[in-house]
Design a protein that fits this description.
mainly beta, Rieske Iron-sulfur Protein, 2 domains
Length: about 350
């Protein structure tokens, strides 16, 4: 049996993590869609990393625990705009919330750098998600509290239990810096630190993990070394193929028109503003050029149409269409390469 160690500063103690082969009894003897021998126990156990099920929010002017470079995960709906800071998600990994008519779980894995919004209505039943304490390819395995089924965050499906092979319905999120988010949506609501738990939200719980390419705590298969392990990229997933867009390729802010798996898409990115978003082009014939001086507008066409970071097409300031979001999320390169072997790289 292999053992691994990492520093988890909830307790400031090193926690031993074991392959989960002997821990879960009947569950481990049941069917999995992934190799159960590659599922590892992260240490804290089920709900040991507590989800936040009653998040509280503040105005931007009342937020004092973030730096300009802190990352946030934003959700934009027709009626509400909210952001969930990484410094909170690092400690809780899942926030169960309601945004307008949407029942949403904001899931975040600090080990793979992946933030994905999930619809909490599964097969007609609203549920909440919690942190199982298990990991596959170093990635978060949530469980739903209705059936106790296990789910793969990056695999976007249930991998074990009553709901096995049920797909997750995703909702688009925008990951960027606190500085950029304040420019984008100055009137939005921000999740605050009144979580009901005693955590040091000014401290990252995994040391130098975010910047140390050699520090990958759990085994991943395959180990794709085409890009630096902790390089952040947007993975665009389609039925016909997958493609990764590294933030490094957007040092010059730009709009990219591309085809992924037969789907025409528009990708807008800025390394300086620290965001990449992608939408299906649909029937639009316009060519958009980057424009970042009037956020949330991020691009403009020759005939004056504007594209916002949330995929809205504006004419004279009015929304005339909303582009379909791609099935996509930001993540560390090593994790994208492991979950989607051979994923194409935009260069």
């Amino acid at each position: 049996m292999k053992t691994f160690k990492f520093l988890f500063t909830v307790s400031t103690l090193a926690i031993l993590c074991f392959n989960c082969g002997g821990d879960d009894g009947d569950r481990l003897n049941a069917e999995w869609t992934i190799p159960s021998s590659e599922v590892f126990d992260g240490g804290p156990g089920i709900d040991g990393i507590p989800s936040v099920d009653s998040p509280e929010f503040s105005d931007i002017s009342d937020i004092d625990f973030l730096t300009e470079s802190s990352l946030v995960v934003g959700v934009v709906t027709d009626t509400e705009v909210k952001a969930y800071p990484h410094p909170i998600l690092d400690w809780h990994e899942i926030v169960n919330d309601d945004i307008g008519d949407l029942s949403l779980a904001v899931t975040y894995c600090p080990l793979t750098g992946t933030a994905i919004g999930w619809d909490r209505n599964v097969n007609g039943t609203n549920t909440t998600f919690g942190v199982s304490g298990k990991l596959y390819n170093s990635n978060l395995i949530p469980f739903d509290r209705s059936t106790q089924s296990y789910w793969s965050q990056m695999g976007l499906e249930s991998i074990n239990g009553e709901l096995i092979r049920t797909d997750i319905v995703t909702s688009p999120v925008i990951e960027t810096t606190w500085e950029t988010w304040q420019e984008l949506y100055p009137d939005s609501k921000i999740m605050n630190t009144n979580t009901g738990f005693d955590r040091n939200y000014n401290q990252f719980p995994y040391g130098d993990y975010r910047t140390n390419n050699a520090n990958i705590i759990f085994p991943v298969t395959p180990n794709d070394t085409r890009r630096p392990a902790k390089e952040r990229a947007l993975a665009v997933l389609t039925d016909g193929g997958n493609k990764a867009y590294s933030i490094q390729e957007f040092e010059a802010d730009r709009v990219v028109e591309d085809v992924v798996g037969g789907t025409d898409i528009i990708v807008v990115g800025s390394r300086e503003k620290n965001f990449i978003v992608a939408y299906e082009k649909g029937s639009r014939n316009e060519t958009f050029e980057i424009k970042l001086d009037n956020l949330p507008v991020v691009a403009e066409s020759a005939n004056g149409l504007q594209l916002t970071i949330a995929g809205e097409i504006l004419e004279n300031g009015n929304v005339i269409e909303k582009l379909t979001p791609t099935n996509s999320f930001m993540g560390y390169w090593f994790a994208l390469g492991a979950f989607y072997p051979g994923i194409e790289i935009f260069e």
